[in-house]
Description:
This protein is α/β, with parallel strands linked by helices. It folds into 2 domains: 40-124 and 241-301, 3-Layer(aba) Sandwich (D-Maltodextrin-Binding Protein, domain 2); 128-236, D-Maltodextrin-Binding Protein, domain 2. The chain is built from 11 helices and 11 strands. Helix 1 links the parallel strand 1 and strand 2. The N and C termini lie close together (7 Å).
Amino acid sequence: MQLMGAGAIGLALLASSCGKKKEEAESQGGAAAGGEPAAEAVLKFSAIPDVDTTGQSEKYKPMADYIAKAMGIKVEFVPAIDYGASVEKFHNADIQVAWFGGVTGVQAREGVSGARAIIAGVEDLAFKSYFIANGSTGLIESDTFPKEIADLTFTFGSSGSTSGCVMPVHFIMEASGKTPDAFFTKKPFGFSGAHDKTALQVQEGTFQAGVMNYTNYDQMVADGTIDPAKCVKIWETPAYADYNFTVHPELEKMFGEGFIDKLQTALAACEDEAALKALGRTKLVKVDNDTFAGIASVMEKVKFE
């Protein structure tokens, strides 16, 4: 996989996310007369697998349970094998609510007319990435972009990750005036597939440097999964908007008109510690599609092929 030249640079919208929207999600059941949900209607919820792809259902069960209780409906968590699969499931209405990253949220909404970003974590309004390096490189934390990484082996996370690839590519381009393919002298650069894998690969020396989201790095340091002396944070990016709950307009057919607004209000009011912990967030806040206009703009110039 190679980054193309200016005007077509960076991260491609995932090819697998181009599935056609189902006009009717009959298997979900429809809203009964008077706007009441049919007895068999089940809200299907998913999330991008941004860390260890196993155990997703167990991880997100507290949030699924919270939505079910708050809305008085049945909720089922549907795992996704990768970022592209989660977007494709949304396009096909196989899931109606998803915890997306900034990029996958834009991709999902672009493929479904009427899809809405409704909720983000308070942390997501000022999200950031950490560039990291193996301790043997001698690199230390700096306030300026670490151009020394150009001569190191380097890994991104998933190619569809906002904080593990798209925004880092944007900052590399801003700092160097080059695409990653031109910037890095050691090729090929890698794609670990997940933030935790990036940290572990850098700590182990599989790659000398990499980039990942700040919440996963901080948590892995806190729980002892990585040693900050061996996996060193060397630069913190400027802030940008990232993760969000995006919802499919099919919900209004399934559970009645106004359901999405009610779901947004219920999520914004969430004080369930287990549910918030499932997302790694302390508080949820209301957002809309415009919140992520900056990400959409970056995606116009950062494309993979």
